[in-house]
Amino acid sequence: MDKQILKDTIKQVFSNGKGILAMDESNPTCNKRFAANGIPETEEMRRKYRQLIVSTPGLNESIGGAILSDETIRQKTDDGQPMADLLTHAGIIPGIKVDMSTTSLSGFPNEKITEGLDGLRERLAEYKKVGARFAKWRAVITIGNDIPTRACIKANVNALTMYATLCQEADIVPIVEPEILMDGNHSMQRCYEVTEEVLKTLFYHLYEFKVDFEGMILKPNMVIAGKESEERNSVDAVAQATANCLLASVPATVPAIAFLSGGQSPQKACEHLNAINKNFKDQLPWIVAFSFARAIQQPCLDAWKGRDSNIEFAQKLLYHRAKLSTVARLGTYNSKMEDLR
Prior knowledge:
By secondary structure, this protein is of the alpha/beta class. The protein has a single domain (3-17, 98-338), classed as TIM Barrel, CATH 3.20.20. It has helices at residues 3-13, 27-36, 43-54, 70-73, 83-89, 120-129, 150-169, 188-208, 235-249, 266-280, 294-304, 311-329; strands at 19-23, 63-68, 93-97, 102-104, 112-114, 134-141, 173-180, 217-218, 256-259, 287-292. The strands form two sheets. It has an eight-stranded parallel barrel, surrounded by seven helices. Helix 9 packs across helix 10 and helix 10 (266-280) packs antiparallel against helix 11.
């Protein structure tokens, strides 16, 4: 492990207020979103959509890294240029999702485990050759009646830890993503309790397995009540709970936290990120940025609808949402900026 390579990658990804664009949706997930917009669910249309994203003018002003799927990192643009190369030439570092998605955790109803450790060392070596300098692994934790169990938390934390060790061995920065889902009717306090437990368990295991905290990125959820909950918390309350939870759980030596949007609307994700940075920037020891997917992509996808005639406007929307995410990272966002003119 070359610690300096890891540090340099992280520094470059988050330079000048930038963040990460997650464009690594699995094929089934991408197809589901295509279907909602009447877009043919084919490999070629997925290629065209990812080409639209990576070729967006000025995207590098706000995006320092982009997470690709296995399919995308192997695809080329219309003129034969690999997608990863196009990003690199624009100053955006390519990353890669290496997990193989989730499956049911045997013996534990309604709980999931993420697969993909088999052959990961070899896959990381291959991805490195085609330009990937960081990777991502997502664990999914559901809040419900009597869940999450300790067994589920430990199983997912163990997988995240082994993934992180293999990434650092290959000089690839691991994005460690333990997502507490917004699904459910749980309170913000319950989300806080579960998030804190998961993060504390995670960092204990990372330390045990000698993962270099300075050479990783944490991608957590914000502390928010479940989508079906009647509880409505203010933006400042969410920011306060999230900041408190992270301060209680995350070592100061971790260089960067890049939040997932987790199903929040684009505007709400920016409002929360902005409040965290605006209200607590002097108390937080980490870079607090974003690794948004739908919160940056969705307006673009809705506008594109698979039509070449819509590409220019769709790219403007993508650029706009990425720019707003960077402004939120700097703590200077306000809702008036939502108006695209």
